[in-house]
Amino acid sequence: MEASVTTVTGGRSIFERSPASRLPDRALRWGLSGLATLILIIIAYFFARLIGQSGSVFNRYGLSFVFGNDWDTSRNIYHGAALVVGTLITSAIALLIGVPVAVASAVFINELCPRRLRGILSVLIDLLAAVPSVVYGLWGVFVLAPKLLPVEKWFASTFSFIPWIGGGVPTLYNYFIAGLILAVMVLPIVSAISREVIATVPSEHKEAALALGATRWEMIRMAVMPYSRPGITGGAMLGLGRALGETIAVVLLIGAAPTIGHHLFQQGYTLAAVIASEFGEAQDIHLSALFAAGLVLFVLTLIVNIIARWIVARGSHGTRGTGATGMTIASGPATER
Amino acid sequence: MSALASIPQISARRRRTDRIMRGVLLAGAVIALIPLVLILYYLLKNGLKTWSGNFFTTDPTGAFFGNQGGIRSAILGSLEIVALATLIAIPIGIGVALYLTEYGMEGWFAQTVRYFVDVMTGVPSIMFGLFIYIVLVTAHIGGGFTAWKGSVALALLMLPIVVRSAEVVLLLVPSGLREAALALGAPRWRVIFRVVLPTAAPGLVTGSLLAVARGMGETAPLLFTVSTAFGLTGNLGAQMNTLPFQIYTDIQSPNPAIVARAWGAGLTLVILVLILNVAARTIARRSRMA
Questions:
Q1: How far is B121 from chain A (nearest CA, A)?
Q2: Which of A12, A211, B134, B245 has a CA 20 to 30 Å removed from the CA of B80?
Q3: ipTM of the complex
Q4: Domain CATH number, residue B258
Q5: Assigned domain for B33 exists
Q6: Helix (H, G, I), strand (E, B), or coil: what is residue B9?
Q7: What is the pLDDT of residues A123-182, one digit of tens each?
Q8: Into how many domains does chain B fold?
Q9: Residue A305: its chain B contacts at CB < 8 A?
């Protein structure tokens, strides 16, 4: 190329933009990078402030804040083992009830259901995720808890020989009811992720199983489940993350007693619930203790989420995380989350 | 027929197991639907009774006996707070997603941001309220409890949802379109504003609406930031009534008339959230993306 044709004054190629016209490009690039950095700064800042605010509690109690069992606002003593235990018990109940139902519904929708029903069933289960948690609380308090009380009483007396079940049903609000409402809230998350994972099972695997003479169930057991197990496990972990941190529905149904219940139908407390219900009158060290409860909850959900994402990513068979599963994880089962 | 005869029969036991397990899976699907049906049934049964002209045009009075009032200030307060949260979360969220797809791509910084956005989606909603409480409320920036602080908390909650859904949609924009525009000499920012964003628009709207629906129903973040008020106010610098919070306090009332208002407000909230969800789905279905 001739120099006189391809350059303008200043020796710049005519294919190059003038510095002035490159300005908006640079501004946009740095602006957007700034926004991305902002997210990291916010998370780091939050973590630092939360540690700072709960510092006085950890200074005073050390690890006995988590392991000691004595939470008494009247004596201003804050050992939160009952909260941690309550959080773990209710979440465990939620997973024990929610995950089998969610996985069964996902397998049914993907493998057994007539094609016409598939879409509508998925949408209906996804809608569960759109119901606000305060509405779950409303329904739980005025419908679920009173209607289930006789059933709980019957169950507790019939199966009283099983550890942690006997002992009657002293209260309307207890671990079981809180766990049950959490199961309903976890269900759409686990179901949506399971459906997506099951949909990625190669049809060759399924056809091979059927061609070898497997029945439908045998095909599901031998071709579908092994392939989708890691993804479903990750989905269940994400559900666990949700159950651990759920606040409003639980605070209404847990019974608000900062003690460790001796059996399934006793009242208790969770980390999130104690923050929500005691926050109003908390001051000084009490407020600090609530922040510390928040810190424990934050760390707990972080660990669970990190493990969950690791399992989902490992189990997604080479598809990138930003695919369909990424969307579900981010925004919930196509509706809310 | 003769060819089939040579295929060995499936034993009765295997056939029985198959039938039982199919039944179990069907039962799972049915059980999964029961809560939704029951919740909608009770919402309609208890909520519709309370709906009247007065219910939507009067504010709650806070009185225990006599005239308790309706939910006007709660509806308008919710809409106001969520609108401000949307104005904060959506530009930032789409901006971050643009950074990830157009500039950061697979670099270590973008991967880090992506990871922490993922982590943010798993943070319990109450933590966002706590954060704003520590940073803005106790610091007394512009007063104690105010509506705009609730908006900031909801915006933080909505942000990761917007980023992740926007990123998925932006990645679907064919790179051929970007390359064609660049080859024609368009600068990068023009490609983004004139080609990438318009192409992705329906999907971006879908993701944003889902985030709005999510923010609309959240109670916990408002607990620590907005607190509550009865009267109608347009002032985002004051305490404000919101639908989720009104339901939350009404549930705890021993007065059946106030509990009834909680059902009416619950039905209203669910319908608002469902409208947003249906709108999002309709837009998603109309466009081939998202």
A1: 6
A2: B134
A3: 0.89
A4: 1.10.3720.10
A5: no
A6: coil
A7: 899 889 889 999 999 999 999 999 988 888 888 888 888 877 777 777 888 899 999 999
A8: 1
A9: 118-119, 122
